[in-house]
Design goal:
Strand content of chain A: 5-15%
Helix content of chain A: 40-55%
Structural class of chain B: mainly alpha
Shape of chain A: rod-shaped
Strand content of chain B: under 5%
Number of strands of chain A: 5
Order of helices and strands of chain A: HHHHEHEEHEE
Radius of gyration of chain B: 22 Å
Oligomer: heterodimer
Distance between the termini of chain A: 63 Å
Number of strands of chain B: 0
């Protein structure tokens, strides 16, 4: 709130200055005209400063983005804490356009699961195990689902002890 | 090569119907006027084509290349024919309203104007090269590009569960789909899911917005240099660039809303019905892009309605028509969302939100929301000093009785939008501190853009009266169309 009030006072002060200067020069204007000139002066000044900054920023962006391959650019969301290696493993095990069920710890849900689904598109995550052809075990809190899919005769490929992909028969 | 041809074809598929729309509205009449109208044509084309395709999508049509080509081609033909018929009819009587200011610029003004236009053009070209390899971050992967990619991969239809919540999908299923659908059509046009390249399209939309506001204001005869300075200030706002780089929808929604507000503002300044129609089309696009756009459209219609009511003008028919276009444009998505029982994760249903127990229990959220939003608006590093400048100029105009109607309009619209945002944060469900910290600096984008277009219009109007045309030199018409009356 305070910064806005300060900015308003600053613009009013510039407008008053414009009014005085124009009157001294013999140009009779009202306060709205002086305010408009002040606004143009303020915006022109801030615009020039911002343009310079933004130009530099654009150069920086171009340099930073130049070497980013498409897959890398798409997978930036892994920074929320998604294991990139296992994500790649899941991608290699679950064919595109297949439906998979995710068994993961509650902590994985919220944003990590959205990132995983986004990177794995057009593979579709389903809400229920019965609709799935594949099951992804992402550090699950229990082994209940794994036991169930084993009983159904699934082929399970382990990435490590806590991460695996099962293909249902 | 396919990618480049696809990219150009994609842009042309919006420019053509956009130009036809501007022609039908009488805003472009001659071939030599076309180059100057290409930016506005792109923005208007995206608005009109995507609104039609939103209707098709929610009606169950697979929106892929054939539907896209049919919509773009059909609209171009229909609007061009309408424009031809209307142009012939207007030759026989219904003349164009006079521009509000016809002062000839000095040589210095001409040079400065060329310099500013050159700088803006160079800036947008540089920006284009900077953003075409941006990564997919934050809400872009969680919401926008997720949905765009899903529409691209799953046949351009909404019936695969991803959008109805029957399978786990992206966040915020309640957000409208104009932008994801636009993105999926871009992917189809270039032949692959070019997520990085799509940022350059968002940049083009932003450039088209900047172009549009300068073009619209200039078309009404406002002095070019005076309107270019606030336009350029808006173009150089750092937060706009960050949002484009991030691939968020805040810039497109603010761009549609801002351009729509200016068009409605020009209509209220006796610009004629054509500006109201253009404003309605742009506001529909805003409402179909993000929920804030719907709020902006409602705010503009409410304030414009109040202006018409207070003035007791004969413009209520045009207002009704504008409101009807907006309502019809917003209806498909709203109905589809309701019929699929998709609810917002953040906002309580309106009945609950207005309930006394819900609102009173959350009163502490009001001052926090006001403080966070006003702090975001006054963040000079993000938004320049645009809101503060508008406040001073609009209040000065109101107090001293200069361009009072426009000042009231451009002061009231962002104020109502701001109050709408406060209401959403007040009655919303997420923890307030977390929510404000993560969104307040973005949700104000629309408010800032409306302040920006208000400055474009007001400063040009007020400064335009400094050096020249008095009533006797530049005849203009008032809201009610009486010749010789200067707009208040």
């Amino acid at each position: 709130m305070v910064p806005l009030l300060i900015q308003i006072l600053a613009v009013v002060a510039v407008a008053a200055l414009v009014l005085v200067v124009l009157e001294r020069l013999g140009v009779a204007v009202g306060f709205p005209q002086a305010a408009a000139v002040a606004v143009l002066a303020v915006l022109a000044s801030s615009g020039v400063i911002n343009m310079r900054e933004q130009w530099k920023h654009l150069d920086l962006q171009r340099a930073q983005n130049a070497g980013i391959p498409a897959q890398e650019g798409r997978g930036v969301c892994r920074a929320v804490g998604v294991d990139a290696e296992f994500l790649g493993y899941v991608g290699s095990r679950v064919p595109v356009r297949e439906r998979f069920y995710l068994d993961a710890s509650p902590q994985f849900f919220g944003s990590k699961d959205i990132c995983m689904r986004f990177v794995l598109l057009p593979r579709t995550q389903v809400a229920q195990l019965k609709d799935a052809r594949y099951v992804v075990f992402w550090d699950p809190s229990s082994r209940q689902t794994m036991r169930a899919v084993r009983q159904r005769g699934a082929t399970i490929a382990f990435h490590d002890r806590r991460h695996a992909v099962a293909r249902l028969p | 090569m396919r990618g480049l041809a696809g990219y150009l074809g994609f842009v042309a598929a919006f420019v053509a119907p956009g130009l036809a729309l501007l022609y039908a509205l009488g805003l472009v009449r001659r071939v030599r006027e076309v180059p100057a109208a290409l930016g506005p044509a792109f923005l208007a084309g995206v608005a009109v084509v995507m609104s039609l395709l939103m209707l098709a999508l929610t009606a169950g049509v697979a929106v892929r290349m054939p539907a896209f080509a049919a919509a773009a081609g059909g609209l171009t033909a229909a609007l061009a024919v309408s424009g031809f018929v209307l142009a012939r009819r207007s030759e026989t009587g219904d003349g164009e309203p006079a521009p509000v200011c016809a002062a000839a610029p000095t040589a210095l003004e001409k040079w400065l104007t060329r310099a500013v236009i050159g700088l803006l053009a160079a800036f947008f070209v540089i920006g284009y090269t900077a953003y075409r390899k941006s990564s997919t971050v934050g809400d872009d992967w969680a919401i926008w590009s997720y949905k765009g990619l899903a529409l691209f991969e799953f046949g351009g239809k909404l019936d695969n569960g991803t959008f109805t919540g029957t399978v786990p999908g992206p966040a915020h299923l309640d957000y409208p789909l104009l932008l994801p659908l636009f993105q999926s059509l871009f992917f189809r046009s270039v032949g692959a899911a070019q997520l990085q390249q799509f940022h350059s399209v968002l940049w083009l939309l932003f450039a088209a917005f900047i172009w549009t506001i300068a073009w619209l204001a200039r078309a009404r005869g406002l002095p070019l240099l005076a309107l270019l300075i606030p336009t350029a200030a808006l173009a150089f706002t750092s937060k706009s660039h960050t949002l484009v780089a991030d691939g968020y929808a805040d810039v497109p929604v603010a761009a549609f809303a801002g351009a729509g507000v200016l068009a409605v503002g020009l209509w209220l300044q006796n610009g004629g019905r054509r500006y109201a129609i253009l404003g309605a089309v742009l506001l529909v696009a805003a409402a179909n892009t993000k929920n804030e756009g719907l709020m902006a459209a409602a705010a503009v219609l409410a304030v414009a309605g109040a202006v018409v009511l207070i003035e007791r003008g004969r413009e209520w028919r045009t207002w009704l028509m504008t409101a009807a276009v907006v309502a019809a444009g917003v209806a498909p998505w709203t109905l589809w969302r309701s019929s699929n029982h998709i609810r917002s994760q953040d906002v309580a249903p309106l009945g609950d939100a207005l309930g006394p127990s819900h609102t009173l229990d959350r009163l502490d959220r009001v001052p926090k929301s006001f403080t966070a939003l006003l702090d975001s608006l006054s963040d000079g590093a993000h938004w320049g000093y645009i809101p503060a400048c508008l406040l001073v100029l609009a209040i000065a105009c109101l107090v001293w009785g200069t361009a009072r109607r426009q000042a009231a309009f451009y002061l009231a619209v962002p104020t109502v939008m701001l109050l709408g945002l406060v209401f959403v944060y007040w009655t919303g469900l997420p923890p307030i501190d977390y929510w404000l910290e993560n969104s307040a600096n973005r949700t104000v984008a629309g408010v800032v853009y409306v302040c920006g277009v208000g400055l474009v219009h007001l400063t040009a109007l007020v400064v335009g009266r400094l050096g020249a045309p008095g009533p006797e030199r530049a005849p203009a018409t008032g809201l009610s169309g009486r010749p010789g009356e200067i707009p208040p």
